[in-house]
Amino acid sequence: MPLFEARALQKRFGAQVVLQDVSLRVDHGELCGIMGPNGAGKTTCFNVLTGRYKPDGGEVLFEGRSIGGRTPREIARLGISRSFQVMNLFDEYSAIDNVVIALPQVRRHGWSMWRDLARQQSAYDEAAELLARVGLAGKERAASRRLSYGERRALEIGVALAARPRLLFLDEPTAGLGVEGTARLFDLIESLKRQLAIVIIEHDMHFLFRLADRISVIHWGQVIAEGTPAALRANPWVQRSSLGRT
Ligand SMILES: Nc1ncnc2c1ncn2[C@@H]1O[C@H](COP(=O)(O)OP(=O)(O)O)[C@@H](O)[C@H]1O
Ligand SMILES: [Mg+2]
Questions:
Q1: What crossing angle do the helices spanning 179-192 and 149-162 adopt, rounded to 10°?
Q2: Less crowded by CB within 10 Å, the N or C end of the chain?
Q3: Which of 12, 18, 216, 224 to mutate to test the pocket of ligand 1 (most atoms within 8 A of CB)?
């Protein structure tokens, strides 16, 4: 049984059909890529898969159970995390506080309680470990707004990992990163590979083709091609779009 499966997803905004027929499958520990032109419906797809938008049709299964109609919070609790194309951090809080707030044992007790709970050393130890895992050791006490753009993106992944997900969605993680930041992010994602299943929307094909086990190409709200990076390089659409020359 695949870890995660979406079948024939449909999503409309008014008269605009954004997802016409999208099916995806993610196996345990697999790293799947999603590519496609701007406006193809990739982010909308993530929004449907993570419960932000209700689909107009289709089915979403996690470990064989339907999760359609669940709220983002309920889906997160099942073990599905995401990062956002636009970053989602508490700027005034330190890097470590951003992670502590996202820990399940802190989150469970509600927003008003977090400072008391977070004083527990164990929460800070765990958050520090997560920060080290995403390459932010030594930055624990820095206000997140003082971090570099690349560090903020890494912190966002640390926050997503705090929920101990079994499936992580990353929406254009290299966006806005320079060469060095992209190389660091590559190493980070590679180090996470196999520890959990990951789905990455990414326009940087060089980046994606070297990381992904399988890639789906979304265009016009449909999966127009799907396969291993090697198979996709031979795909006419990928070649025409010049994305295959990586
Ligand atoms: N909340 C929304 N309301 C109306 N239209 C939307 C909404 N979200 C996305 N869209 C439209 O859906 C289409 C696909 O957008 P998106 O999923 O962001 O594409 P991608 O991530 O592939 O670039 C676009 O035409 C966009 O304007
Ligand atoms: Mg997008």
A1: 20
A2: N
A3: 18
